[in-house]
Structure to design on (172 residues):
C-alpha cells in the first residue's frame, strides 16, 4: 500500500503531520502531492522535512485556482491537466518547474489534480524529464513506457463525516 497526501494547507497541516506520523509508525510509504504555486511557508517547509525523511514528493499541478480551457466536459478548477494539449501542458510545466526550483523542490514524478492527465500532458511530462505519472487507474513509467494498473482510494467527498469514517476504516 502507498498513501498519497494532497490538500496540505496551513489549516490542515497539523492533521497531515499526525497522519504522516501514524504512517511512519506503521512503516507505510507516503507520497506528498505538492502544487507548485504553494510558495514559501510552513507547508513547503513541512514538505521539505518529509522529503528529507524519505518520502516522495510529486508535482500536483501548477495552480488549482485557474480554470483550464480546451475541455469538452467541465471537471472543475482542480482538474488542471485533464484536457490540455501538449503545448499548453508544456507551458504549465515550465512555470511549475520554475516555481519548484524557487522553493528548492526537485521532483521527477507527477500526479495530476483530480487524477486525470491528458495525452498531451503525458507527452509534455516525458519531454520535461519526469519519470512517472500516477493517474486515476495507473502508474506510468515515462522512461520505459511500462504501465502498472493501480486504484485511487480517496478520502475526500462531499461529506466531511464520510471522509472521517473512511479515513478511520483505512488507517485503523
Amino acid at each position: 500500500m502507498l498513501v498519497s497526501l494532497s490538500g496540505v494547507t496551513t489549516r490542515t497541516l497539523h492533521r497531515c503531520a499526525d497522519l504522516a506520523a501514524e504512517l511512519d509508525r506503521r512503516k507505510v510509504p507516503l507520497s506528498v502531492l505538492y502544487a507548485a504555486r504553494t510558495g514559501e511557508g510552513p507547508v513547503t517547509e513541512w514538505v521539505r522535512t518529509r522529503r528529507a525523511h524519505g518520502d516522495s514528493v510529486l508535482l500536483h499541478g501548477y495552480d488549482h485556482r485557474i480554470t483550464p480551457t480546451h475541455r469538452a466536459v467541465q471537471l472543475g478548477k482542480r482538474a488542471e491537466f485533464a484536457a490540455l494539449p501538449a503545448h499548453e501542458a508544456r507551458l504549465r510545466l515550465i512555470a511549475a518547474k520554475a516555481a519548484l526550483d524557487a522553493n528548492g523542490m526537485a521532483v521527477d514524478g507527477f500526479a495530476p489534480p483530480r487524477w486525470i492527465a491528458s495525452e498531451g500532458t503525458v507527452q509534455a511530462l516525458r519531454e520535461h524529464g519526469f519519470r512517472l505519472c500516477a493517474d486515476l487507474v495507473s502508474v506510468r513509467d515515462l522512461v520505459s513506457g511500462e504501465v502498472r494498473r493501480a486504484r485511487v482510494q480517496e478520502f475526500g467527498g462531499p461529506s466531511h463525516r464520510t471522509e472521517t469514517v473512511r479515513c478511520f476504516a483505512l488507517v485503523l
Remarks:
- The radius of gyration is 16 Å.
- The beta strands are 3-5, 30-34, 56-59, 109-110, 132-134, 138-141, 147-149.
